[in-house]
Design a protein that fits this description.
4% strand, mainly alpha, two-stranded antiparallel ribbon
């Protein structure tokens, strides 16, 4: 290599190496600051695109979980109302059974009929007030739940409404049902028994639906955790590794500065040849 004051090849090489070290140092510092190996599409377009798509799926699962949680609450309110209805029917059966005793005086039977009517009206109120977020599953013409089940919204988990209203498909007692004689009270027992059986079946269906929704919430939580972990594997930086690399690059940077300084002195050394 010729000695020249016009072209300092050594300084050029030293500067190129120093610039490369500085670029690597900036990259490492950025990874340490953000905690990410791929923080933008500029870092790695393909990996960033994959990670971004998975982030979209993860955020969509937030909406899925919210839908499922609302649905669970709605069904649980319906179940609570159904349990109340079942308990009230048991008490109504007790009143009717007591009134069916032919040896009972009319005053006592009238009192039992009044209690029966109060329980009947309480049942109607329980059904009417079994509402969550504007949805009632147990009133006449109640709303069927269709919770979002996947990130695309193409799958649903359905829980059918179960009417527990007076005079409906399950509770066979109407709003005006009562008794005034032992015979009427005795006949009413069969209707109440059928209502109790129907309500138990309806509660079983609601309970199964609530369990399905809760199980799917657990699955969605696990799925979202797995997706988030996968995104982290794609884009997160290994900070221990980056810290070690930072130390090495800082040392390399200092050596590069010294090498450039030495290379820049080569032209002045040539002056010694002319002394």
């Amino acid at each position: 290599m010729p000695n020249s004051v016009n072209t300092n090849v050594g300084a050029m090489i030293a500067l190129q190496n120093l610039n490369q070290t500085n670029n690597e140092l900036m990259t490492t510092q950025a990874r340490i600051n953000t905690g990410k190996r791929v923080a933008s599409a500029k870092d790695n377009g393909a990996i960033w695109a994959i990670a971004q798509n998975q982030r979209a799926n993860s955020r969509s699962l937030d909406a899925v979980r919210e839908s499922l949680q609302r649905s669970v609450s709605t069904v649980d309110v319906a179940i609570s109302a159904g349990e109340t209805v079942s308990d009230l029917l048991l008490q109504m059966k007790e009143k009717a059974l007591a009134a069916s005793d032919t040896s009972l005086d009319s005053t006592s039977r009238t009192a039992l009929a009044e209690d029966f009517g109060a329980l009947r009206d309480q049942l109607a109120k329980a059904v009417t007030n079994a509402e969550f977020n504007g949805i009632n599953m147990v009133k006449s013409g109640g709303t069927t739940i269709a919770a979002i089940a996947n990130a695309n919204g193409t799958k649903k988990i359905t829980v059918q409404a179960q009417s527990l209203a007076l005079g409906g498909a399950n509770v066979l007692i109407s709003a005006g049902t009562t008794f005034s004689t032992a015979s009427a009270a005795s006949s009413l027992i069969t209707t109440i028994n059928s209502s109790i059986t129907n309500v138990s079946t309806a509660l079983s269906k609601l309970g199964t639906g609530s369990k399905s929704l809760s199980s799917h919430i657990e699955f969605v939580n696990k799925l979202q955790d797995s997706i988030d972990a996968g995104v982290g594997n794609l884009v997160d930086a290994d900070l221990a590794k980056e810290s070690a690399r930072l130390q090495a690059l800082q040392t390399k940077q200092q050596l590069g500065v010294q090498a450039l300084s030495i290379a820049n002195q080569s032209s002045s050394i040539l002056l010694g040849l002319f002394r």
